[in-house]
Specification:
Helix content: 25-40%
Largest sheet: 6 strands, mixed
CATH topology of the largest domain: Rossmann fold
CATH architecture of the largest domain: 3-Layer(aba) Sandwich
CATH class of the largest domain: Alpha Beta
Strand content: 15-25%
Number of domains: 2
Low-confidence stretches: 256-262
Order of helices and strands: EEEHEEHEHHHEHEHEEHHHH
Bound molecules: adenosine-5'-diphosphate, magnesium ion
Length: 283
């Protein structure tokens, strides 16, 4: 792989759930050193797109190359090798509830390196310090707040010092100050250390703070892409509606029943069905 070739190349990517096409012919590249922000309304396919980039979902058609290799056709053991080169911060944090904060962060080190226990402990300490969680090693995920869980997830994603970081909604559910802290950390890693990042977010303050390039998804395709300045000054009314967070505009608000008809996997059902599950047996 040449030094200046893209780290990720998504070409003609299509993904269909049942008869519903969520990603329709998506193509773009991620270049080394940039922070690509992927944005768009809830349900437009951002997480699905990210899952293709990390090889946890296979395309219906098209290809996804990462570090020059097609992840869509790789075998599981090859994907594991590639995964050691990137970190992933999941939308929910995805911590293992039965393990402590420290153990969660140590997992990638235990799985993918042969470092000694002392070395692992030292790295865990360092990563937790980086996200401002020194001293929380021995707590369980249930004992810390949502924002702290996200930061533990970030410490774990950074455990192997990846050259590439994927984050899915890293700041959703965080207060504005914690959002700024997480953004500052991302900036320190990207602008400061040359890490490449792909960040899915619908938090516009955060997007404009960290992004060097932006892609907006909508209707299965790419509505707009460009530098933060190009997006900010875009003449596309959908883009303006989204970045300004306006209810009125060209983007339809699916608050009604038709939304369900578009989602064959979300079958409306009478609430009374749930009653049986919560009914307390008296006999
Ligand atoms: N495993 C799945 N099976 C069926 N439909 C799915 C699945 N995952 C996501 N979807 C649907 O695909 C669409 C895009 O979902 P997602 O990528 O999670 O959106 P976003 O992250 O932009 O909110 C949604 O309508 C969602 O319901
Ligand atoms: Mg999502």
């Amino acid at each position: 792989m040449q030094i200046d070739s893209p780290l990720i190349e998504v070409t003609d990517l299509v993904h269909t759930f049942g008869d519903r096409t969520v990603l329709n012919d998506i193509s773009f590249n991620v270049r080394r050193g940039e922070t690509l922000v992927i944005m768009g309304v809830s349900g437009c396919g951002k997480s699905t797109l990210l899952r293709h980039m990390i090889g946890s979902m296979r395309p219906t058609s098209g290809s996804v190359k990462i570090f020059g290799e097609d992840i869509a056709t790789m075998k599981e053991h090859e994907i594991i090798r590639v995964r050691c080169r990137f970190g992933m911060l999941f939308q929910s944090g995805a911590l293992l509830a039965s393990l402590t904060v420290g153990e969660n962060v140590s997992l990638p080190l235990l799985q993918h390196t042969d470092k000694s226990v002392d070395e692992v402990e030292e790295i865990v300490k360092q990563k937790l310090q980086m996200v401002g969680l020194t001293g929380f090693e021995n707590l369980k995920p249930a004992e810390i707040s949502g924002g702290m869980k996200k930061r533990v997830g970030l410490a774990r994603a950074l455990a192997l010092d990846p050259e590439l970081l994927f984050s899915d909604e890293p700041t959703s559910g965080l207060d504005p100050i914690m959002t700024a802290v997480v953004d500052e950390l991302t900036l320190k890693l990207t602008r400061g250390r040359g890490m490449t990042a792909v960040v899915v977010t619908h938090d516009m303050t955060s997007a404009f703070r960290i992004g060097t390039r932006m892609i907006m998804l909508g209707g299965g395709g790419i509505v707009a892409q460009g530098t933060p300045d190009e997006i900010r000054t875009s003449s596309n009314p959908e883009v303006q509606q989204f970045i300004k967070g306006e209810a009125d505009g060209p983007m339809p608000l699916n608050l009604f029943q038709e939304e369900h008809e578009d989602h064959p996997h979300v079958k409306p059902r009478p609430c009374v069905v749930a009653r049986g599950r919560f009914h307390r047996k008296t006999t």
